[in-house]
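Example for tutorial group B:
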């Protein structure tokens, strides 16, 4: 592989049913690929059951670092903590609910060359209930049109990012709109993207924290605020 090292992190909120298998698959994949890596789990104020699972992971795999948020900071807050904790040349992350296969990191790594800053996954096919697929597609097109993004899949959280990108891009969102903020700011900063197809799987454990009407309304409001700051006022870098 062409990368010097990869810091891997997963945001975790109540993901006690998936995090153990994700860590084991990650370690096996990284060792098979013979890459220099570290793993961080960002616990975003999960309940006791998840805390117990993370403690057991730490006991069995002492090389895994666990960062705890005392209170829930939101998806964006968890991502910002993960990015700040990274030490290697590249950063890989995906969600802790195992809807993406961490072994497909092997699909991203060959594209992480000197002429690329972000290797962005895009879903081959979305395996979710129909209402989630519809809402997800509407959200994707709103974000893409509102911010003028050329990407095929704005909210596919399966990404490999050069760590030096964050020397010129500062993220501020604590909510899920951080993905739109990140893609807009990276695009404006001149980051070079490669898009790679990855598989998406049905959620095997838990339920989405996004797909309920109060949260959707809040995200719409937050997205409008982000659009006002980044597009109308042209603030932020």
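The residue assignment follows.
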């Amino acid at each position: 592989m062409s990368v010097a090292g990869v810091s891997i992190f997963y945001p975790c909120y109540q993901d006690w049913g998936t995090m153990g298998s994700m860590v084991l698959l990650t370690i096996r994949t990284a060792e098979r690929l013979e890459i220099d890596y570290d793993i961080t789990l960002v616990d975003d104020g999960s309940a006791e059951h998840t805390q117990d699972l993370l403690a057991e992971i730490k006991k069995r795999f002492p090389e895994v670092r666990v960062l705890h948020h005392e209170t829930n900071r939101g998806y964006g807050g968890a991502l910002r903590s993960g990015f700040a904790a990274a030490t290697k040349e590249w950063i890989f992350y995906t969600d802790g609910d195992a809807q993406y296969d961490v072994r497909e990191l092997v699909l991203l790594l060959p594209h992480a060359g000197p002429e690329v800053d972000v290797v962005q996954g895009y879903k081959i096919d979305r395996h979710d209930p129909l209402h989630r697929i519809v809402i997800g597609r509407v959200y994707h097109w709103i974000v893409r049109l509102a911010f003028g993004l050329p990407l095929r899949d704005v909210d596919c959280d399966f990404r490999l990012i050069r760590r030096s990108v964050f020397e010129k891009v500062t993220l501020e969102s604590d909510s899920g709109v951080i993905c739109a903020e990140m893609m807009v700011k990276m695009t404006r900063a001149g980051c070079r993207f490669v898009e790679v197809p990855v598989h998406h799987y049905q959620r095997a454990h838990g339920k989405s924290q996004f797909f309920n009407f109060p949260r959707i309304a809040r995200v719409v409001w937050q997205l409008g605020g982000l659009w006002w700051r980044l597009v109308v006022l042209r603030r932020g870098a």
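The first strand starts at residue 6 and ends at 12. Compare this with the pattern of hydrophobic and polar residues in the output above.
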